[in-house]
Specification:
- It is a single chain.
- The chain is mostly helical.
- It has 2 domains: 134 residues, Four Helix Bundle (Hemerythrin (Met), subunit A) (Up-down Bundle); 119 residues, Helix Hairpins, CATH 1.10.287.
- Helices cover 76% and strands 0% of the residues.
């Protein structure tokens, strides 16, 4: 019983903090602090910093890897509580292949098993920023909305991809003869389409023919509309999520009020029964 109690409490602490769970809240704050310090260290190490600070960051990195390793092992240990309908071994296998478990493994594995194609493993600490999703409610809400609206988002992205392909081929046809060195293949047209649709035009490639310029202007206007679609989908999803939370909060308050009313009525009945006996 003590073993199961410790195991369940460990799961509650590792899971996102619930209202009133001080231990889980402290754990979330500690993990977020550790993640933020490590991400800031990536930027600080690009400057000339004192040797003492550099040594502190190195030691803190080692400490962080140890903590995240223990966390990963504990999450595998308590996985049966996350998937109570599965046998313990299947629950752990299922958790092992979840997105966040893979992120955890990618964040710590190279520090124990050196990879020949990675000269500096410190860059892998950017994976630790994804771990913040577990400890920030706002990021969890965005992830929940993206998951709920994934079909709409995938449809909009697919339409965007098709439009970029069509525009890249058209741009290639319009510009290839006028400037064959720049628009050598349709991939050059695709690079221009990506630049325009993402509003990241670098000025290294542009159309000079009249049809090409007309198409480029059309792509710029179309890009604003296309980019607005995923943004609108996510915004509407966040609004719907906020409405659901408000309804849940209202339902809890109503249930609490009804429970209190029932308690008051029971006390009144009890008093009336005592008076009748007298």
């Amino acid at each position: 019983m003590l073993y199961q109690t410790i195991k369940k409490r460990t799961y509650e602490i590792l899971d996102k903090a619930r209202t009133g769970d001080v231990g889980s809240r402290i754990f979330d704050l500690a993990m977020m602090t550790m993640i933020i310090i490590n991400i800031l260290a990536i930027f600080l190490e690009t400057f000339e910093i004192p040797h003492s600070l550099h040594l502190f960051l190195d030691n803190f990195e080692i400490f962080s890897v140890i903590v995240f390793t223990v966390e990963y092992i504990l999450r595998l240990w308590v996985a049966p509580y996350q998937y109570p309908d599965l046998p313990p071994w299947r629950a752990r296998i299922k958790y092992f292949f979840t997105f966040m478990a893979i992120v955890d493994l990618l964040a710590i594995f190279p520090f124990y098993v050196p990879l020949p194609f990675f000269d500096d493993l410190r860059i892998l600490r950017v994976f630790w920023l994804i771990k913040a999703n577990r400890h920030l409610t706002s990021l969890q809400k965005i992830g929940k909305v993206i998951k709920a609206k994934r079909s709409e988002l995938l449809s909009s992205l697919f339409v965007l991809f098709i439009m970029m392909l069509v525009c890249s081929v058209l741009m290639f046809r319009f510009e290839n003869k006028a400037q064959p060195g720049i628009f050598h293949t349709a991939l050059d047209g695709l690079w221009y389409a990506i630049s325009i649709f993402s509003f990241a035009w670098l000025g290294d490639i542009w159309p000079i023919t009249i049809p090409g310029r007309i198409l480029g202007g059309f792509m710029a206007i179309l890009g604003m509309a296309v980019v607005a679609v995923p943004t609108g989908i996510i915004s509407s999803g966040l609004f719907e999520d906020a409405q659901e939370e408000a309804k849940e909060a209202e339902a809890k308050e109503t249930f609490k009020l009804l429970k209190q009313m029932k308690k008051d009525l029971d006390e009144i009945k009890k008093k009336m029964g005592n008076e009748e006996k007298k």
